[in-house]
Design brief:
heterodimer; A: about 200 residues; alpha+beta; Defensin A-like; Ribosomal Protein S8, Chain: A, domain 1; 3 domains; 3-stranded antiparallel sheet; 6 helices; 9 strands; about 40% helix; elongated; B: alpha+beta; 3-stranded mixed sheet; 3 strands
Chain lengths: ~200, ~80
């Protein structure tokens, strides 16, 4: 049950009775007062009961999960979505067959989905979440690839004594490279404007 | 395909009832035209077209039944 209309002597009473029916608390719902009610003469004549409509606010994470199920089923890809929440970061893990369609070239489809989920999860509600969407361990595989690429390119920069520019990447992928080259004798910075921002390795 | 576009766009906008997707078949491509409520235009395009780009990426990734190229027209 997601929505009930309840009545009571006062607005407060009506809300309380609605919350009881929904078995939830006040911060989880949206309240719509339909009628404030009237005390009436001596509390007997012309009294009107207060009427409220109380709607359960859908959990933000659940909503994002429903979105992922919706979109993937419309793409004819069967997936299982699991979500883990750590403070304000949510990770959605997609598993299933034909997952390659959802990842796309260099993860571009996965990144697009991640961006859309981030928008939808923060559209309503009080919490601000950061989102990552992973598919069959793609992110960790990509991390390994990026780390070895970073080390290789750093060596190249040092041996050539020249700046080496990498191809454009989203922010969280650039971060992986910055991090791994922190301990090396090269400096790194990002150049260009999104979405063409890329890393430059300087010897 | 139409359902896919609607399922992506509807949660993004404030007026889901005004999301309209029309399909137009041409010789070499299939054009889907998306219109949303006047106030929601920004929500589907985004800064520098970032949201529009993400929507297109997902839509183009989906396999379609026809062999024609798919094209998504926004507004």
């Amino acid at each position: 049950m997601r929505e009930v209309t309840a009545s009571g002597q006062t607005v407060e009473e009506a809300v309380q009775s609605a919350l009881k029916q929904l078995n939830t608390t006040r911060d989880q719902v949206d309240i719509d007062v339909i009628d404030e009610g009237k005390k009436g003469l001596l509390g007997v004549f012309g009294s009107k009961r207060a009427i409220v409509k109380v709607k359960r606010r859908k959990n933000q994470v659940e909503k994002a999960k429903a979105f992922l199920y919706d979109v993937t089923s419309n793409m004819n890809v069967d997936v299982e979505v699991t979500s883990t929440v750590e403070e304000n970061h949510v990770t959605f893990d997609l598993t299933g067959e034909n997952i390659a369609i959802l990842i796309g070239k260099r993860g571009q489809t996965l990144n697009a989905l991640q961006y859309l989920v981030q928008l939808i999860i923060n559209k309503q509600g009080n919490e601000y979440y950061t989102v990552s969407v992973d598919a069959e361990g793609y992110r960790s595989r990509r991390k390994e690839t990026l780390e070895s690429l970073a080390l290789k390119m750093a060596d190249k920069a040092v041996s050539l004594q020249k700046k080496v520019a990498l191809e454009p990447m989203p922010a969280f992928e650039r971060k992986i490279i910055h991090n791994v080259l922190q301990q090396k004798d090269v400096s790194t910075y990002s150049d260009g404007v999104e979405p063409h921002r890329h890393i430059v390795i300087k010897p | 395909m139409k359902a896919l576009i609607e399922s992506i766009v509807t949660p993004l906008v404030d007026h889901p009832e005004d999301v309209v997707v029309t399909k137009k078949e041409e010789d070499t491509k299939v054009v889907y035209h998306l219109t949303v409520h006047q106030d929601d235009v920004g929500q589907v395009i985004g800064k520098n077209g970032r949201i529009a780009k993400a929507i297109r990426t997902v839509v183009y990734a989906a396999k379609s039944d026809s062999k024609k190229r798919i094209y998504l027209d926004i507004m």
